[in-house]
């Protein structure tokens, strides 16, 4: 999320980046997900909040599909994307049950990226370390 915040701040006036109030409003808009344009919402939200909301919604829809299509049963987050990347890096099987087609397209790109960097030696080394620590890997 920090990288996304930094990317979005580059689009705005540079003086706003270092303003703690602006940064806090942006973060609130990004993470709360309360549509500031709704009829039932307080109209006094700041520009930073609105920009944060728009950025957060865009991020959500890039990972999970348009909200107009409904909210999926499983939500893809940055953590889920990182888990799929790691699974690819380690050559692990993945469970894709319950994800929408849009989500599967996104997840497969992350998993494929991990597979492209997969090193058998590193995977075997990790398994040995985990076995020494009595940690079992599920299949």
If helices are DSSP runs of H or I spanning 4 or more residues, what is the number of helices? Answer: 7
Secondary structure: helix percent: 55-70%
Distance between the first and last residues' Cα: 30 Å
Give the CA-based shape: elongated
Compute the CA-based radius of gyration: 19 Å
Description:
The chain is mainly α and 139 residues long. It is built from seven helices and no strands. α3 runs parallel beside α4 (47-64) and α5 (78-90) crosses α6. The longest helix has 18 residues, at 47-64. The protein is elongated.
Protein topology:
Elements: H1 2-10, H2 14-17, H3 20-32, H4 47-64, H5 78-90, H6 101-116, H7 120-132
Helix pairs in contact: 3-4, 5-6
Provide a concise account of the structure shown.
By secondary structure, the protein is mainly α.
Q: Which short descriptors sum up this protein?
A:
7 helices; 0% strand; disordered N terminus; 139 residues; mainly alpha; single chain
């Amino acid at each position: 999320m920090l990288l996304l915040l930094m990317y979005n701040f580059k689009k705005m006036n540079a003086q706003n980046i270092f303003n703690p109030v602006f940064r806090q409003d942006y973060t609130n808009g990004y993470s709360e997900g309360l549509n500031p344009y709704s009829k039932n919402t307080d109209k006094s939200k700041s520009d930073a909040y609105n920009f944060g909301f728009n950025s957060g919604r865009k991020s959500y829809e890039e990972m999970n599909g348009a909200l107009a299509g409904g909210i999926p049963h499983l939500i893809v987050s940055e953590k889920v994307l990182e888990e799929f990347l790691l699974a690819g890096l380690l050559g692990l099987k993945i469970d894709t049950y319950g994800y929408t087609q849009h989500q599967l397209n996104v997840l497969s790109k992350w998993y494929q990226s991990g597979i492209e960097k997969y090193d058998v030696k590193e995977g075997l080394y990790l398994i040995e370390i985990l076995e020494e620590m009595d940690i079992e890997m599920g299949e």
